[in-house]
Amino acid sequence: MKDLTVEILHIDKLIPYCRNSREHSDEQVAQIAASMKEFGFVNPVLIDEAGTIIAGHGRVLAARKLKIVDIPCIRLSHLSDTQKRAYVIVDNQLGLNATWNWDMLSVEVEELMEAGYGGNCLGFTDEQLMELIGTPNPPPEDSGSDDEKEEKQVTCPRCKHHFKP
Length: 165
Fold this sequence. Notes:
This protein has helices at 26-39, 57-65, 81-96, 102-114, 126-132, 146-151; strands spanning 6-10, 45-47, 53-55, 70-75, 154-155, 162-163. By secondary structure, the chain is an alpha+beta fold. It folds into 2 domains: 6-96, Alpha-Beta Complex (Conserved hypothetical protein from pyrococcus furiosus pfu- 392566-001, ParB domain); 102-163, no CATH class. A hairpin with a 6-residue loop joins strand 5 and strand 6 (162-163). The N and C termini lie far apart (47 Å).
């Protein structure tokens, strides 16, 4: 195994891979940013010897949003050009191939919500969170007055995301 040393690089030294096939919505970038605010930048960006991003495009977008300029990186200089291109895809796909233990996830999410985590802090939408803890979906946006809607909103104390209990 090659030496995988973390080095800190200025964000402007990182080059997005021009053929990256993974897209990051504004909502997902906000979720990554919320995670970074809560836990720090704990997952280094993987780059090649020239500074081209192999894995971590979303983390770099979130860092820009948070005005973080010092980015932890690991250089994967041992990969061939073809291996780099393949790893850009496999790094994203392998996570999608996993499944959840829904019973355990429900217990964890409910306890974490009681501890103040919710919304973007956990990477789920409000509807997903409510489904996980067995709470029916919130009523449609047009039901009730504006005051009633505001009262039904809860703010995650960690990421300041608003969600409906």
